[in-house]
């Protein structure tokens, strides 16, 4: 009976061995495959290994064989190739909303999708640089809860906080819970944001997921009429209007840009925006935007290549912002220590 049970496991053990220990640069010989079966108490002959390899091919595995200087068997095409895994590892490592501990766990799981030899290249990828990570360990599970709430079309409640200079959580609204009907999640500037209908403010707002505490999915649903308003809400347009997801006054702004800024404008606002020639060296573009300090920062970074020309209230606000910042950097008066 023991031999029969072992023989039933034989193809599974061979499959796992090939997935874990073989790749194009590290084929496994028949002798190595037979040796891998021994800890399981499985005896095998060379001829039977050839039959097993053919059975695994029939099952759908891309089993390749090589003759010559480095003969053996290896897995060719996998669900994820090494360059794809490198991209995924880099994305996980870059995400601020995933803590370092959770990043390490996910990366170890990604390493399990390739051979032990190629996994070493992924390990080297991890330590490319030091990146800022969130301090909120629960964010990984909060995202899952929010997706469940979205699927069930139910409200969530949570407490929302900021950090003070001592890195302590300070809760907004005196710690009272927020009630939000989720509409979607946005990944912007390496942070996840929940966008939804705020039951208290009676408007669509967004919140950083890593700043939520005690998140819970409720049985509450939107009132008749409100659900239709939310269904018609354009998530893509909402995200495009916000710079760094900062809140501010929304308006239709006009920018006059030097021609060399075409790529910058298209990267930020998309290929659909209309560029209107304005003389030989400039063009204008009109877009919906939330005018916030972050918007002014983006504008200032482009220097004299982009000019905000309308609406008037936005131009005045930008001028006020420039004056306030310039006031902090006035040169010392004559006779003052420099």
The CATH architecture category of the largest domain equals Roll
Instruction: Kindly report the average pLDDT value.
Output: 85
Give the count of helical stretches.
Answer: 12
Shape: elongated
Q: Can you tell me the residue ranges where pLDDT is under 50 for at least 5 consecutive residues? A: 125-129
Number of strands: 12
How far apart the termini lie comes to 91 Å
- The amount of helix comes to 40-55%
Q: Supply the CATH class of the largest domain.
A: Mainly Beta
Please give the largest β-sheet.
Answer: 6 strands, antiparallel
- Structural class by sheet pairing and helices: alpha+beta
If you compute it from the alpha carbons, what radius of gyration comes out, rounded to the nearest whole angstrom? 29 Å
The CATH topology of the largest domain turns out to be SH3 type barrels
Percentage of β-strand residues: 15-25%
Helix/strand order, N-terminal first: HHHEEHHHHEEEEEEHHEHEEHEH
Number of domains: 4
Protein name: WYL domain-containing protein
InterPro entries: CBASS_pafABC_assoc_protein (IPR051534), WCX_dom (IPR057727), WH_DNA-bd_sf (IPR036390), WYL_dom (IPR026881)
Domain WCX: 252-326
Domain WYL: 144-216
């Amino acid at each position: 009976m023991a031999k029969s049970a072992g023989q039933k496991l034989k193809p599974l053990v061979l499959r796992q061995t090939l997935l874990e220990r073989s790749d194009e640069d590290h084929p496994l010989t028949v002798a190595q495959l037979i040796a891998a079966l021994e800890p399981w108490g499985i005896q095998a002959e060379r001829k039977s290994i050839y039959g097993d390899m053919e059975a695994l091919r029939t099952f759908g595995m891309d089993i390749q064989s090589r003759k010559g200087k480095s003969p053996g068997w290896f897995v060719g095409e996998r669900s994820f190739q090494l360059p794809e895994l490198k991209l995924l590892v880099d994305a996980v490592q870059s995400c601020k909303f995933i803590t370092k501990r959770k990043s390490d766990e996910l990366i170890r799981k990604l390493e399990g999708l390739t051979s032990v030899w190629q996994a070493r290249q992924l390990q080297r990828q991890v330590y490319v640089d030091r990146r800022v990570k969130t301090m909120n360990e629960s964010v990984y599970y909060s995202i899952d809860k929010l997706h469940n709430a979205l699927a069930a079309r139910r409200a969530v409640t949570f407490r929302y906080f900021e950090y003070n200079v001592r890195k302590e959580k300070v809760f907004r609204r005196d710690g009272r819970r927020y009630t939000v009907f989720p509409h979607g999640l946005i990944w912007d500037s390496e942070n996840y944001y929940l966008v939804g209908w705020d039951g208290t403010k009676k408007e669509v707002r967004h919140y950083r997921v890593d700043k939520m505490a005690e998140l819970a999915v409720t049985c509450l649903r939107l009132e008749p009429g409100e659900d239709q308003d939310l269904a018609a809400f354009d998530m893509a347009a909402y995200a495009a209007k916000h710079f760094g997801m900062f809140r501010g006054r929304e308006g239709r702004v006009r920018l006059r840009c030097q021609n060399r800024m075409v790529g910058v404008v298209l990267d930020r606002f998309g290929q659909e925006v209309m560029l209107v020639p304005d003389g030989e060296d400039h063009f204008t573009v009109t877009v919906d935007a939330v005018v916030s300090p972050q918007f002014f920062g983006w504008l200032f970074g482009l220097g004299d290549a982009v000019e905000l020309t309308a609406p008037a209230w936005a131009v005045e606000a930008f001028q006020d912002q420039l004056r306030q910042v310039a006031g902090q950097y006035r040169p010392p008066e004559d006779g003052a220590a420099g």
